[in-house]
Amino acid sequence: MSSPSSAVSPALPTAASVPSPATAPTTPARAVSAPAGPAPAVSARVGSARGVSAGPTVAELLDFVRRTAEDTALIASLPLDPEGRTWVRLEGPGGSEAWLIGWPPGTGTGWHDHADSVGAFTTASGTLKEHSLAVRLPTDGWKTLELNDGVDRERELAAGQGRAFGQNHVHEVLNESGSAHAVSVHAYYPPLPRIRRFSRTGAVLRLEQTEVPEDWQ
Question: Is residue 95 left, alpha or beta, with left meaning phi > 0 and alpha meaning psi from -120 to 50?
């Protein structure tokens, strides 16, 4: 990931005042804020409201990654590299995109999102840490913004532990161990159309690049 710029404008938009992509920059900002309480469970099938064929729910994706993480022969078959992450494409349920990923000590994803895809992942071995944002970022129309206080979340996921997430989830995942690899299983539906990658310095989040499937497949 590219490093953030050393010059940060003093008049940065914040996560509660960044302009709506549809109207920026000439109209007042649309409020974007962290939820006041726990996020509601996400269980609706993606696409069902639009009248297209229904895909797996996030609960079904989470069940898939948990069951796959228990397949010790599959987990052991993943080649591990001490210099960088390794991955193998899996067949996910209902047309979803799934991956088996190996994490050497000290590696991570950097901050990124998953566009309109929902997803789930489970740690199969080792321990992973997730940093995430409890706020939905505008999908377009910005390059740099300043996050409000209280939007950061952190969780540690040991072997057998996982989580599901909704659309536009922003996070980074890390293996903070100094000596042990980690392995995890991930699934997304619909298959990832793009990934936005961000750099972060304190509360300042900067969009660095957008990747499409050809960049990681």
Answer: left
For the chain, helix, strand, coil in percent to 5 are 10, 35, 55
Q: How far is CA 142 from CA 9, 18, 22, 81, 105, in A?
A: 13, 8, 11, 36, 34
pTM: 0.76
What is the C-alpha separation between 116 and 163, in angstroms, rounded? 17
Q: Which two tokens stand for residue 162?
A: 């996982």
Cα end-to-end distance, the chain, whole Å: 18
Rounded to whole angstroms, the Cα distance separating 120 from 107 reads 20
Tell me how crowded residue 75 is: count the other CB atoms within 10 A of its CB: 18
List strand residue ranges (DSSP E) for the chain, in order. 86-91, 97-103, 111-112, 118-125, 127-133, 144-146, 152-158, 162-165, 171-174, 182-189, 195-201, 204-211
Range with lowest mean pLDDT among 22-36, 172-186, 188-202: 22-36
- Please answer whether residues 144 and 205 qualify as being in contact, where contact means their C-beta atoms are separated by less than 8 angstroms: yes
